[in-house]
Amino acid sequence: MQLPADASVRLKAIDALRGFALLGICIVNLPLLARSWDSYQRIPETSFARAAFFANSLLFEAKFFTLFSFLYGIGIYILVKREGSVFLLRRFFALILAGALHAILLFPGDILLSYGILGFLFLPLSRMHTRALLVTAVSCLIVSGATYAFLGILSQHNYAAPPTNYATYGAVVTSNLNVYPYALGYTMLFNWPGALAMICLGFVAARENWLSKLRLNRFSALMFAAGIAGSLLYANAAVYQLREYMPVAMLAMAYTTPLLSLTYAEAIFSLSEWAWARRLVTAFSAAGRLSLTNYVLQSLIAGIIFHGYGVGLYNKVSQGGLIFVSLGIFVLQLALSDLWLRRFDTGPLEWLLRSFSHLTLMPLRRSS
């Protein structure tokens, strides 16, 4: 069935927002794949590296996981209406499997397993009235603030990170197995409460048709300013190792990050309506349609660049240099996504996920 014109435009904007979020995820994740944990316990040596670290902490860290969670809630609403709950249950299970493999084989900071589990947790909540879902979202945000503050307290102490060795691919897998329990525990504490809040908001936004009003408006500047202000102390504390300020810094960031993330969403939805930005939105949309493939591909490319089974640049690129590497990876993904979608309807990992969820092989090539 063909979508109405306004619904089709809205879906393209959602894909574009998902593609934009991939850029943020790449900028945040790449340092975790390219540099050791010990390097983050020291103040960066050059002003450019400090500026890059500051920008990452201020504008990207936590913001794009929050944004992806909002999009995940929208996606759950679309799929539950189109495919039903049983389909979603299989999809969540597949995400858990994919996430475990991704964490062990490529990147222990995986978020796919978390989204699979959060999907299982959210599905019973999806039957709740809008007001109840909003109360749930606010409650989760309150819990998120508490967990952020707790992590800020923990950051005041020096904890030894599990040993890692990225000299060979076998060593990478062994290291990932050692690190993953810690990374998953960190993600559960740091990200799950806020993510569940944003899933609730995304689901409600799609169900109540709020997405049609998700545009830059007179309150957007205030939301952006509040989001920036809430992360300023954290960015300074992270860059200059001001650990005594971390609890209050992370508490402030927890409560203002959703404001900044929603401002990003408003900006992309507004861009989707501006003729001069059509090519950019189309490119982001192509990457967003292949978001699962591109997310895993980022880890694979980073492994080839930084680990011993590839070029071996681990701990050899500064924070500033990593910003440019992230941009380069994302631009490459924009080009590859466009080329792929000229011949195929969906990405290879999206196809596997869809086929598993439907329990049948789905078409992959574009219909003529």
DSSP E strands, number: 0
Stretches where pLDDT falls below 50 for ≥5 residues?
1-5
The largest β sheet comes out as:
none
Q: Give the radius of gyration.
A: 20 Å
Order of helices and strands: HHHHHHHHHHHHHH
On the 0-100 scale, what is the average pLDDT?
Answer: 93
* Amount of beta strand: under 5%
Shape: globular
How would you classify the helix and strand content by structural class? mainly alpha
For the record, give the distance between the C-alpha atoms at the N and C termini, rounded to a whole number: 17 Å
Indicate how many domains the architecture comprises: 1
Number of helices: 14
In helices, the fraction of residues equals: over 70%
Architecture overview:
The protein is an all-alpha fold and 368 residues long. The chain has one domain. It is 73% helix and 0% strand. Helix 1 runs antiparallel to helix 10, helix 1 (5-34) packs antiparallel against helix 13 (319-341) and helix 2 (47-60) packs across helix 9 (220-240). The radius of gyration is 20 Å and the shape is globular. The chain starts with a helix and ends in a 10-residue tail after the last helix. Mean pLDDT is 93; it is low at 1-5.
Which secondary structure elements does this structure contain, and how are they paired or packed?
Elements: H1 5-34, H2 47-60, H3 63-82, H4 85-105, H5 112-122, H6 130-154, H7 169-190, H8 192-207, H9 220-240, H10 246-271, H11 278-289, H12 291-306, H13 319-341, H14 348-358
Helix pairs in contact: 1-3, 1-10, 1-11, 1-12, 1-13, 2-9, 2-13, 3-8, 3-10, 4-5, 4-14, 6-8, 6-10, 9-10, 11-13
